[in-house]
Write a structure and sequence with these properties.
single chain; 73 residues; mainly alpha; 2 helices; 84% helix; mitochondrion; MICOS complex subunit MIC10
Length: 73
């Protein structure tokens, strides 16, 4: 098991935040595209709203994770 140094823990958490943001943005965009194609006559707002929800969730998780790191040090 590799040891993670205290200095490197912040970069590990930021990398995790970026990965989580990309996954949630893509998922929200996908749900928005499907909703747009099936229900909303190919309008753009479901895609924008889905991506926004995904980024919002990722931001909340990232903020919680980084706040936990900074309060523990």
């Amino acid at each position: 098991m590799s040891k993670v140094y205290k200095e490197d823990e912040i970069s590990v958490r930021v990398d995790r935040c970026l990965y989580d943001s990309a996954i949630k943005f893509g998922g929200g965009l996908t749900v928005g595209v499907v909703a747009s194609l099936l229900f909303f006559k190919r309008r753009k707002w479901p895609m924008i709203m889905g991506s926004g929800f995904g980024l919002g969730l990722a931001y909340e998780n990232c903020e919680k994770d980084l706040k936990e790191y900074f309060t523990s040090t």
